[in-house]
Amino acid sequence: MDKRILCVDDDEGVREVLLRLARRWGYEIECASGVEDAMEMFEALNPFLVITDLRLGHIDGVTLADRLHRQYDPLCIFIALTGMLDSYDLSYKRRRWESLLR
Fold this sequence. Notes:
Rossmann fold, alpha/beta, four-stranded parallel sheet
């Protein structure tokens, strides 16, 4: 089983928690703080799973997932994290995630 994970979040605390948990469970994990780093790390790491924040500055997690699927691996699994409380923004992002599944 492939045990490589890429975590993408601009919050250092979230990255640290995911890093500790993944390593405790026996996974190899790398963390990126932004989209540009994530794109480079994805190519080098070739993870089976990407855990990403939905809000990543000028590019959101949905756009990142779309780019990584198109450029590198259409079979990679994505998990999105969010602290969003704005229901309109969250429902918009959910519709965009669902469009990636089609």
